[in-house]
Amino acid sequence: MKKIFSPAYRQDYLKGYSIGSNPFLEFNSSMNNEAFITGFQSGRSEYERINGCICDGIPQRIVTDKVLEDFLIAGLLGLPIEDEGYTSHQVNMIAEWYQSGVEKYEPNQSICLFEMLEENGILIN
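The structure assignment produced for this chain is given below.
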């Protein structure tokens, strides 16, 4: 077994992960090594955890960790969310993150944040 902390292993793993997490890309058989395969499987697993199985089709809108963090922040600030274009699997995942933010929502912090943003010319609808 190769050292999993070697730069070459890490590079192949990350290539595999990026291809696995993109539903429009397929497994690249030319990179047939342990690191690439492990990275691909991890990336595909992460994609399917959030967006649902690829065999069910690729959704209109792709959810990533960044998108989920945005919904968490929306919940923290008490902002309404738009879930149009997402599948039911994705909406369930989004709802979990949004609810987590709502549970930590403090109106006084939101008011202070909105005032600070407004002072800097940033308007939140």
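Interim note for the steering committee: The helical segments are 7-20, 34-51, 65-77, 88-103, 107-119. The longest helix spans residues 34-51.
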